Amino acid sequence: MDAKPRARRGGEAARWLPDAGTQPVGLLGYPVAHSLSPLLHNTAFRAQGLNCVYLALPVAPADLAVAVAGMRTLGFLGANVTVPHKQAVLPLMDGLSPQAEAVGAVNTIVCRRAAGAVTLFGDNTDVAGFLAPLHAFAGELRGAPVLLFGAGGAARAVAYALLSTVHPARLTVAARTPAKAERLARHLSPFDASGALRVVALAEAAAAVRAARLLVNATPLGMHPHPEGTPWPDAADFSAGQIVYDLVYEPEQTRLLREAAAQGAHTLGGLDMLVRQAAASYAQWTGREMPLAAVRAALRRR
Ligand code: NAP
Q: Whose CA is nearest to atom 41 of ligand 1?
């Protein structure tokens, strides 16, 4: 079901109030108070005059199934799903996108209504969100060596995105807990026909760091309130010609990005990915393109 616009009058965006026809979209997580998603989506709804509201909904793990079932009857357009529910929500879906199925995690639920019935479709827009800022580099990255820091949920989405579109010659996963990275590699082996995936302990990743054309940080190292953190403190290992992509978006300029840029590397921050994964969800709920300029302006003003 697409979002319904409401008749616009002068100054409507400033005076918008929810009414009896307002369609909700939720964020299911625990906790959710820190999330930027309400700002992104409500800015887009107001900019496009849609009578929708995006609500951060703290849902304890024991209540997840009840909360998801409630979406079917409460008129929800859909929801985002965040920590710790991205995997637990999978069996509660009626259908999954190939991305959600491959990654084994859902970050977006779309409520589809037909003939009086509601079905819940689970997608993973972190895949599209991660790839969007890399499109400009797609040609030069094909067949190049890539290094991925981390083996958690975001790393799975990144590894799947890279294996299914960039086709790196080598995709090295450098993890503090190599057993977890081995599990990631086993899970994604159906998408690794050329045997690109390899696991190294973080402490032994120096050669792979120096050789990589693209480096991706999918750990929380460097994130507020610990901006001194970095997955790779040996900044001399970075060089011009490398692309260093940090999924951390708070702060926008992480220590990793600052140090890589100082060595001449091209850097990409996590804020664009955040906006692009939101845009991919928004399009499915509303049938519209997210107004990116308005959303980015709201992020700058925050
Ligand atoms: P996660 O599932 O908890 O995984 C975190 C990974 O980082 C794990 O492999 C963990 O290792 C590793 N790690 C944590 N602390 C570490 C440390 N001190 N030293 C070495 N490795 C460490 O988290 P996630 O959901 O994948 O998220 C990871 C980061 O990506 C977060 O900062 C998140 O905000 C960011 N993210 C950004 C976007 C975006 O749109 N920009 C989207 C998704 C996620 P262990 O397994 O050993 O614990």
A: 270
219 Cα: distance to centroid of ligand 1 (angstroms): 3
pTM score of the predicted model: 0.95
β-bridge mates for residue 52, sequence order: 23
163-200 burial, b at 16+ Cβ within 10 Å, e below that, comes to bbbbbbebbbbbbeebebbeebbeebeeebeeebbbbb
pLDDT digits (tens, 9 = 90+) for 32-83: 999 999 999 999 999 999 999 999 999 999 999 999 999 999 999 999 999 9
In the reported structure, the alpha carbon of residue 159 is separated from the centroid of ligand 1 by a whole-number distance in angstroms of: 13
Question: Which positions are annotated as active-site residues?
Answer: 86
Residue 34 amino acid letter: H
Q: Is residue 96 helix, strand or coil?
A: strand
- Ligand 1 pocket, mutate which of 35, 176, 223, 250 (most atoms under 8 A from CB): 176
